[in-house]
Every structure is written in structure tokens, then in C-alpha cells.
Amino acid sequence: MDELSEVDYDHSQNAHTEAGAIAGWSRFAEARHIESVLDVGCGRGMWLSAVTQAGVTDVCGVDGVEETAETLLFPVERFHHLNLTQPFDLGRTFDALLCLEVAEHLPQSAADVLVGSLCRHGDLVFFSAAAPGQRGQHHVNCQWPEYWQEKFNCEGFACDDASRWAIWDDQRIEPWYRQNLFVAQRNASAGSEPRIKSAVHPAMLPHMTTDRRAEIRSEIENGAMPVAWYLKTPVRAAIAKVRRRIGA
Known about the structure:
Layout: H1 3-6, H2 18-28, E1 36-40, H3 46-53, E2 58-63, E3 79-81, E4 96-100, H4 111-120, E5 124-128, H5 145-154, E6 157-160, H6 162-167, H7 175-180, E7 182-186, H8 210-221, H9 227-232, H10 235-246
Helix pairs in contact: 2-3, 8-10
């Protein structure tokens, strides 16, 4: 049994929605010619279902938890049950890869392995992973985007979070994607790009631990969020929301 299966992760209990995936993919694919997609950590295939509805028929999904034809939302013959803590190679590349809210479920010792497997299969990766203090099933390696950015840089991929700010206000999309998303792309200048700043979306407060909410209030008041955060978010309203959540 692989390590992810040993934690008894139940994809049916997650809060991802088809509407969120459809809206998210439409934004991700804007101005990009994408004909093939690999979803690493695909679960039941919510995102691949959205991708195929958008007209992309060459799709493939990989997950550490076994799924069946009855549970999958895309053809079972395009699903691979693999141990994500070990390197894998499907023998081909894809126009785009998805790895969304997956990496935090794997031990820190597997972080480099996961990123290496992603980069082996294409030049464009849409990536998000749970931030420190973010609640969820078996969250064992919650990190800020810069942690993952450094690992992509080591593989020759530059990263930016323009897509995060593009979807920040889109309420059709789940808040964890709006907070954590960035794009990694193969680039000869990888490593020289600006570091991705840590940011907490106000809509994520119910999904953060109590201790983390108190820290967020201090960070907001001290100007620690990225400039784009303050341009997008009414500061007083955000502080008031944090206070309500922590009972201050």
C-alpha cells in the first residue's frame, strides 16, 4: 500500500465543486493553447471533468488513492494509481499539468520527488498547496508558495502568481485555490524571478486554525501582506472578519 493510501484519505469528503473547477479551468486556460492535461493528485477527477467539458479530450489522472470506474468522473483507462512519494514517469509529456491542493498530503521528504515528477511531464504546471495553518485531511507539509517555488526553480521552472490575483475575487472558485495558486513554467531564467509572497485570502479564515487567525490579524495590521493583497482587500473589513473569527 502506498503512503497516501495509508492515511485513509477519502476524496468523497472534500469540498471541491464542479462549478469551481469549471470556472477555474476557464481562467487558467485563457490565452493558452492546451490540448492535453495531466492532473497529479486528481482524486475522483473533478478538474479533469471540467477540462474535458471545455473541449480537451487528451487527459490523464494520477492519484495515490485507488479509484474505480464507478467513482471516477473521467474514463478509468486514463487513471493511474501510483505512489506519489516515489518518482513516476508515464513516458510522455502534456501541454499542462494540474497539481492542486495535493502536495500538503505528502511527507516533506517527498516534496522534491513530487516536483520532479511534475516537471518530467511538461513545461507548464498549475500548482497550489495548503498554507501553514490551513485545516484539512492529513495535512502534513503545509508550506507557503515560496517553498515550492524554490523546488521548481531547481528543476528549471520559473514561477509567478499572476493567476492567483486574476482569480482572487472570483467567488465561483474555492478560496484555497484563490489563495495558493501559482504557475510554474520551464524557463532558462528560473530562479531570478521575484519570490512569491505569502498571502491569506479573507475567505480562507474559516479554514485556518485559531492560532493562525491571530497571527493573520497582526500581519494585516503590520503591512506584511503583498501589495496586491491590500489593493484587492478592504483592510478594515478584513481585520474585523479576523476579530470575529478569533473572538477578539
